[in-house]
Amino acid sequence: MSAGAFNILWLQAGSCGGCTMSMLEHGSGGWFRELDTLGVNLLWHPSVSEETGTEARVVLERVEAGETPLHALCIEGAILCGPDGTGFFNRLAGTGRAMLDWARALAAKADYCVAIGSCATFGGVPAADPDPTDAVGLQYRKAVAGGALGADYRSRRGLPVINIAGCAPHPGWIMETLAALALDVLTADDLDALGRPKFYVDHLAHHGCSRNEFYEFKASAETLSQRGCLMEHLGCKATQAAGDCNQRGWNGSGSCTKGGFACIACTSPGFEDIRDYHRTPKIGGVPIGLPLDMPKAWFMALAALSKSATPQRVRKNATADHVVVPPRGARRPKE
Amino acid sequence: MTRLLVGPFNRVEGDLEVSLDIKDDAIASARVTTPLYRGFEQILVGRPAVDALAIAPRICGICSVSQSMAAAAALRALYGVAPARNGIVAANLAHAAENMADHLTHFYIFFMPDFARAQYAGQAWHEAAMRRFKAIEGAAANEVLQARRRLLEIMGILAGKWPHSLAFQPGGTTCAVDLGQKAQLVAIARDFRRFLEASVFAAPLEAPLDLKTPEELERFCEGRGADGDFAAFCRIARALDLENLGRAANPLMSYGAYRDETGAFLNAGVFDPLNGALSPLDARAIREDVSHAYMRDGPEEPSLARTEPFVDKPDAYSFAKAPRLHGRPAEVGAIARLAVHGHPLVRALLERSRASNVFVRVVARLIELAMVAEAAEGWAKALALNEPFCASAPQEADGDGVGLVEAARGSLGHWLGAQKGKIRAYQIIAPTTWNFSPRDASGVAGPVEQALVGAPLEGHGARAASVQHVIRSFDPCMVCTAH
């Protein structure tokens, strides 16, 4: 352990391990090198550390006893409280203790506590109806403050749980948050009302969407793989969902909407209980989920106006899976 | 006899607990426990059938595309929809990228670091293994993560993101690839091939692909491939006699991998390592026994079964059910796929051992990596840009659908029943449910429980490297196991 390093301990609770898989994609020179560059020391990580069994238990016990300083506790996965509050649905192997118990004990020792992903944040998919395992996030049960640590929990440096919501989160969201903590530049003002870092949730997933022109003209895709806007028919939540998703590249150049499917608002509490992800709920032909900060009447008026002004090119391309009508200027620039 | 409890058992996907009975410094008997249950099968029931495509992949972050593919295949069977040819090719390519990333992550990040353990200090090969493979610090780690990152750019193009994409649909894939993207896909496939040729095999890919006999393998590792990490593993395996570690003689099963309208790239079937017999797969002979699972009794056929946890059940020790084929455990994974397909080297190694073992499991994984890497470029080139990628599928149908695919770790099945467009029943049997099965009602142990018996501990107790090698040679995914 290098002196002055920022110690993080990463644990997986009721998780799929996908946040770790995302994390391993980070850093052009490899994640381990990136950690080293930023002065972050992995005390233990279930997927990558050599220590196993007794050796791993010793690492955890030293942190719990206060012998090893813990700068950030990172927990991936929901905390499973069931059955009957025992946490038996998710024991940490070899310890006879539930992750619920470990999370509470270790969070008390941490300068910062970081929920990695929507499960650790809000409960996520394991908390989906009928919530078979009584799954919660570290500090939220869906959108309600509380969770495994309680609404009043503050880490030793006085912050609530830092919630890196997303399923799975972009690796940059995780690493940039950890880097800001290691650099001692993240404050309470940098978190939104749900404890999520504002640097990525003060945007909508819709911002930067490559289907922007189709959205403007309400030229909509009717079935999957078509190029048009996914909001009117195919359930896209990007105009309501927090995230700079379309301002970053995912796995190089991707994003959900670039990949041809709808945003399902995976950074929001309760996304796991949406029904018919790829069908837009409507009343009288009008989508229910319109942009949150726009008067509905204005939206409808503008939509009607823009629909009547939709260029033939945009209308045709919206229901095709590749460009069938190129922009007029694209082939022959005006002289 | 003493009993040891091992856990948390890390560098696997998820968490694992192992209980070992020790006699004469060797393992006399083993029980493996899946300590996590999230209830996906309960969550899926009652939802619109198509929503399986959003929920099921989230079972697993490391084989999320496999879960998507199985769910899409089950829905395809339910709807009776014919997928667009491009969609099949694109899905196979994305699936290949995930499977290759998994094999790579397993070999370098999960498995090889155990040879850098202090227990081996003094062995001739230990210092080199430390430099190259030590967890987090070894020279290979960052190299591999860079290659993995580049490889997974295939997901950015075909699936939007990884893990957890909605691109895989009954009718095909949602993203129609253009010419520039096709060119990028070929470039990524070639970059990955170059990485394999530079680091893993230290030779052109044709060399490992041509290996047919154990003698040729040995010559390759001493000769033209000597500088590669594959050869380094084979030399360590020889020094430690890994061919005689982790032996288990169960039927090796494969559902068949990378299917298209012409068939499967790797065939389906069942291979018996005891007598070399190959038989066709009869998926109707699959049952799940719950005698030692924290689950209530019920029908054993996956299409009729329910999942209802019961944690106070006497004799239960795992959240995993015990899948059986014709009443017997089966081992799944790359070793099974290549044995069933008839790969000469894997068949010859199995004939020599008359059982699966640590060495062949790892060799099969790396040979498969080479085979799929070569095929991937061909699949990228096979995308027909002027043809559709996704056929439309009906949104409602009643009946049953079964989706059987091969994930990196082996055979993955989804059994879906639908009524009025809603999921009436959903059962999942994951690869590690097979390999890390608990005992069944007859007391027959699962594959890894069998494979651990006899492992020497050399005075190291539960920390013995042999235990690490046997368990990790299966590449377990514990989050999938009980789901």
Could you explain how this protein is built, in words?
The complex is a heterodimer of chains A (335) and B (483). Chain A has 11 helices and 13 strands. Chain A folds into 2 domains: 6-201, NADH:ubiquinone oxidoreductase-like, 20kDa subunit (Rossmann fold, 3-Layer(aba) Sandwich), CATH 3.40.50.700; 203-322, Irregular (Cytochrome-c3 Hydrogenase, Chain A, domain 2). Chain A starts with 5 loop residues before the first strand and ends with a helix. With 335 residues, chain A is an alpha/beta fold. In chain A, β5 and β6 form a beta hairpin. In chain A, the strands form 5 sheets. In chain A, strands 2-1-3-7-11 form a 5-stranded parallel beta sheet, with helices on both faces. A two-stranded antiparallel sheet of chain A has the order 4-8. Chain B is α+β, with helices and mostly antiparallel strands. Chain B is built from 18 helices and 15 strands. In chain B, the strands form 6 sheets. Chain B has a 3-stranded antiparallel beta sheet with strand order 1-2-3. In chain B, β9 and β10 form a beta hairpin. In chain B, α4 (85-111) packs antiparallel against α6 (139-151) and α6 packs antiparallel against α8. Chain B starts with a strand and ends with a helix. The model of chain B has no long low-confidence stretch (mean pLDDT 97). At the A-B interface, α1, α2, α3 and β5 of A face α1, α2, α4, α6 and α7 of B.
List keywords for this structure.
heterodimer; A: 335 residues; alpha/beta; Rossmann fold; Cytochrome-c3 Hydrogenase, Chain A, domain 2; 2 domains; five-stranded parallel sheet; two-stranded antiparallel ribbon; 11 helices; 25% helix; elongated; B: 483 residues; alpha+beta; Cytochrome-c3 Hydrogenase, chain B
Number of strands of chain A: 13
Indicate the proportion of strand residues of chain A.
5-15%
Q: Major beta sheet of chain B, specifics?
A: 3 strands, antiparallel
Q: State the helicity of chain B in percent bands.
A: 40-55%
Global geometry of chain A: elongated
Radius of gyration of chain A: 22 Å
Low-confidence stretches of chain A: none
Spatial strand arrangement across the major sheet of chain B:
1-2-3
Domains of chain A, number: 2
Average pLDDT of chain A? 95
Mean pLDDT of chain B: 97
Quaternary: heterodimer
Query: Main β-sheet of chain A: number of strands, strand sense, barrel status?
Result: 5 strands, parallel
Q: What is the general shape of chain B?
A: globular
Kindly name the structural category of chain B: alpha+beta
Identify the CATH architecture of chain B.
Answer: Orthogonal Bundle
